[in-house]
Amino acid sequence: MKKVFCALVFVLMLAAVCSAAGKDFVDAGILTYLGTTEAEFQRGLDDLRKAVAPLIPTDEEKGGWAEYDRLEGFLDSLVKTRRVIHFYDSLLSMQMALRSRKIDEIALPEPVGLYLVSNNPKYDIYFSLNMMPSTISFGFKRGNTALQKEFNTAIASMRKDGTLARLQKEFVTELGTSEPREVRFATFKGAKTVRVAVTGDLPPIDFIAADGRPTGYNTAILYEIGQRIGKNIQLVSIEAGARSAALAGERVDVVFWYRNTDGIKAPKQAKGKNLKNVMKDNMDGVILSEPYYEWDTDLIIGLGD
Amino acid sequence: MSFTEILYKILIQGGSYMTILKGLWATVQISVFSLIAGTLLGAVICAIRMSKVKILRFIATVYIVILRGSPVLMLLMLMYYGVFARSSLDAVTIAVITFSLNVAAHIAELLRASIGATEHGQVEAARTLGFSAWQSFYLVTLPQVIKIAKPVYQSTIVNLIQWTSVVGYVSITDLTRVINNIASRTMQPMITISIGMLIYLAMAYIVHGIFALTDVSHKRKERSE
């Protein structure tokens, strides 16, 4: 019986190794898009791949597509190798999948990717994709337009006086391997309190320090917003997957909305769907603020070996 | 980065150990209060389940079926973001209520099965000897029920400790949430989660140890008698 069991395990392991070795696609992990499903996203990506493939080789067709230069790397990698997309609710579970080789690579916004690689030498940047402009915004429950307006005004003024750029420099681009500094919130007596959900799952943007207090770029932005709108800010630490429920149940007033993108438009010559319709990360019950962080480069990261 | 440096970063740097201890305290707090409330409620539900009134039996059965059959995370989210969304109760209290309700269903069934395993003839004999209904339950049935239920009750406690690991979804920073935060901060998920697992394992063995100690003291008591 023991021998039969061992033989069975050996055969299963061999089958797993053979199937992994023989696969002609790459398993790629991305953080969950809340407005679409994994299957829809995959269909959109495959459709785009099929539609774009005939356009890649010739120069004339490249010229016919204004976005080609910007998307060249992405399209080359997309067309040459099929990506099978896997959604992960958190960066943590995505890392675990990568480490256990369930997936071959993960895609992350540049600052998060750089933080990951600089803090763990096991990871390596395979290539960077100047893929599509994406943004981070604050999410509010639909109907809470008063708070949305206040946040938008504050973000606009921060953009105008250079505060956004200054904070981005301090908390993201020039952070390196060090931890972001502590952000202490001022208290306005008698003022209303805005409760904001933090996840700590997207360092150095959404970050929870060793002593358990939330900090990082998002927190610094919230400090400034609190100052400008004259309201107290209360940070509520919550799992990334519970953001929508927290908003809907009015346990928090604001959440960080990770990615808001228009997706990729397929060229006119390409027949078929594009990624514009399936890369939405917004939901019906949520309204978004003006973006306070923008990036257009994603890093594709894998294991160093 | 050497393994020692990684461990230092995970456990010590920036007072990380204090954050872990705080998370551990939240886990212990929720587990202990839920266990106490769940056991008491479970006993009541068991009594209702075994009552002679048909409608009460039906209500208790429905309660047990629903609570035992539903995932505790969904129940917790439903309670926190739905039922108690407008209440002033804090997240820990709502978590304790939720886990108590869930554990009560399991304990009610455990007690019912244990009572069913005792011989009814013994109670009848006690009543013939002049014991009241309460005395025959307290002196004859209950000691046997405790003995029968003990191993499964022990597993229920360990399960409860593990179930509490989902409270991060309702804004409680428990041990799992702290471990996840550290893993995200240090970008060392494998080592950090292994440490978290060891702490949970230690808690499970502390529970086993307490039960083993009660067994030893019980045997000593029996021998001295």
Task: Please provide a written account of the structure.
The complex is a heterodimer of chains A (305) and B (225). Chain A has 10 helices and 11 strands. Chain A has 305 residues and is of the alpha/beta class. Chain A has 2 domains: 2-133, no CATH class; 135-294, D-Maltodextrin-Binding Protein, domain 2, CATH 3.40.190. In chain A, strands 1, 2, 3, 4, 5, 8, 9, 10 and 11 form a 9-stranded mixed sheet that branches. In chain A, strands 6-7 form a two-stranded antiparallel ribbon. In chain A, strand 6 and strand 7 (214-215) form a beta hairpin. Chain B is mainly alpha-helical and 225 residues long. Chain B has a single domain, classed as Orthogonal Bundle (MetI-like fold), CATH 1.10.3720.10. The mean pLDDT of chain B is 92. Chains A and B meet through helix 5, helix 6, strand 6 and helix 10 of A and helix 2, helix 4, helix 8 and helix 9 of B.
Kindly list the characteristics that best describe this protein.
heterodimer, A: 305 residues, alpha/beta, D-Maltodextrin-Binding Protein, domain 2, 2 domains, nine-stranded mixed sheet, two-stranded antiparallel ribbon, 10 helices, 39% helix, 25% strand, B: 225 residues, mainly alpha, MetI-like fold, 83% helix, flat
Q: What value does the Rg of chain B take, in angstroms?
A: 22 Å
Largest sheet of chain A: 9 strands, mixed
Please identify the structural class of chain B as seen in this structure: mainly alpha
Indicate the low-confidence ranges of chain A by residue numbers: none
Question: End-to-end span of chain B in angstroms?
Answer: 61 Å
Domain count of chain A: 2
CATH superfamily of chain B: MetI-like
Instruction: Please give the number of β-strands of chain B.
Output: 0
CATH fold name of chain B: MetI-like fold
Q: Provide a count of the helices of chain B.
A: 9
Distance between the termini of chain A: 38 Å
Q: Give the integer mean of the pLDDT values of chain A.
A: 81
Q: What is the CATH architecture descriptor of the largest domain in chain A?
A: 3-Layer(aba) Sandwich
Please compute the radius of gyration of chain A using only Cα atoms. Answer: 22 Å
Number of strands of chain A: 11
What is the CATH C level class of chain B, in words? Mainly Alpha
Number of separate structural domains of chain B: 1
**What is the average per-residue confidence, as pLDDT of chain B, rounded to a whole number?**
92
Beta content of chain A: 15-25%
